[in-house]
Write a structure and sequence with these properties.
Radius of gyration: 23 Å
Helix content: 40-55%
Largest sheet: 5 strands, antiparallel
Number of strands: 10
Distance between the termini: 55 Å
Number of domains: 2
Length: 245
Amino acid sequence: MPLAPVLASGADASILRAPLSGLNALSCDEPAQVHQLVDNIASILKVTLGSAASYQRYVDALIQQSKVEKEQTLSENRASTEGAEASIFTATEARDFSHISQKLDRDIELLIELYQKKEGENNSTKVGEEVYQTNLLRPIIDYVNEGHPTFRKLSLAVRLVRSLDERHPTIMPDIKRGRFCDIKDNLILELQTYGLATVVEANRRDPSHNTCQFTEKMYRLKYWLDYNNYPIKDTYFELISRRQL
């Protein structure tokens, strides 16, 4: 039976014992080696491998998870060896922040309406919709970095559309995107659940649009991410679909 040893979370080949020690172990921390692993398994299974672009997001997710667990292990090791006096984060706090960051570090979908203003008309007419995918953690941390003490999902939606317009203008100059996008995820509830925000102004019609105030835990999370050099993805937008009405 073919063997394919794989190393993750910063582990190196020194931890392997025979017969695995005699094989070429591939690391989940290196993109090229993850792609090599996929090629090797495809060859063993005698299946045709699709284009790398078709599964790149899963490769990225595996590498990200491996690096996160590596940083968590290093953080816990530092806490145990440096002593309580030199420790910045407790082991419990580090585990909590690692869990929260992994939950927030995911892709979400943005539904954006397209409008066209025709000659001689005062109002714009909705002519289509776009659906984009983007990472959630990056815009939330950027929002905190700008110094905003309160958070609304609508405010984040406006920021995301503005950022999308800067990176990917609409195909036709006379077609404009709406001012904000629709985010299905209940971000307010999620931030409350993790203790990162508290409601300061309730929206009776739709609680997902409550106004929240960030807690000290949010700023501690940001510090933890910085301290551990957490690999937050750069802002990106992947087009999922576009349709005309």
